[in-house]
Amino acid sequence: MSEKFKNLIAFLTKLPGIGPRHATRIILAMLEWTPEELNQFSGHIVSLSEGPTLCKQCFNFSDEDLCNICKNPHRDRKRIAVVEKVTDLVSMEKSGAFNGLYHVLGGAINPINGILPERLKINELLDRAKNATEIILATNPNTYGETTALYLEQELKPLGVRITRLARGLASGTSVEYADEVTLTNALKHRR
């Protein structure tokens, strides 16, 4: 196999869930693309080196200062769902069950891996919570998500805002990102 393909395989296998065989299949599929498509794709990859543009309010990916969700005047601005990652936000949006705003923490508290509260967007959440009537803690139902939710409850309680959690429609140990729309809808509908 040529060095060019070996190098591409090595880079693709750095992605989660992509092994050498899958990487090879991806490369073979890309060989069927036109040169223009390959150039467009490589341009998008290069643009990642400039860093993501994050919404200044919720920290979702955005091409502008505010993402489409935060700019939408029809969203309930008094309810904020707190999620760990952008992929959790995307999954909740797919359910169509939530019409409020979001706040992406950028992870969960995990001292073993060096992720302490200072590394997360918690101070920004506390600032936003002052204008909210409800904060929905939509962290993942695993050890780190639960730890993060408990920490957030302690920090938010003095603000007097209503704090709710997703209902236990999500199985313990799973991720919001992989939950189906019905499960997320029920979890939002029956939160406490």
Helix content: 40-55%
> What is the CATH-assigned architecture of the largest domain?
3-Layer(aba) Sandwich
Number of strands: 4
Low-confidence stretches: none
The strand order across the widest sheet is 2-1-3-4
Radius of gyration: 19 Å
What is the third-level CATH name, the topology of the largest domain? Dna Topoisomerase Vi A Subunit, Chain: A, domain 2
> What is the CATH C level class of the largest domain, in words?
Alpha Beta
Q: Please give the alpha-carbon distance between the first and last residues.
A: 57 Å
State the helix count. Answer: 8
Order of helices and strands: HHHHEHEHEHEH
* Tally of discrete structural domains: 2
Largest sheet: 4 strands, parallel
Structural class computed from helices and strand pairing: alpha/beta
What sort of overall outline do the alpha carbons produce when their principal axes are compared? elongated
Q: How would you describe what is shown here?
A:
The structure is a single chain. Strand 3 (134-137), helix 7 (143-156) and strand 4 (162-165) form a beta-alpha-beta unit. This protein has 192 residues and is of the alpha/beta class. A 4-stranded parallel sheet has the order 2-1-3-4. The protein has 2 domains: 3-48, RecR Domain 1 (Helicase, Ruva Protein, domain 3), CATH 1.10.8.420; 68-189, 3-Layer(aba) Sandwich (Dna Topoisomerase Vi A Subunit, Chain: A, domain 2), CATH 3.40.1360. It has helices at 3-12, 20-30, 35-48, 68-71, 86-95, 122-129, 143-156, 181-189, and strands at 76-83, 100-104, 134-137, 162-165. Helix 1 crosses helix 2 (20-30). The longest helix has 14 residues, at 35-48.
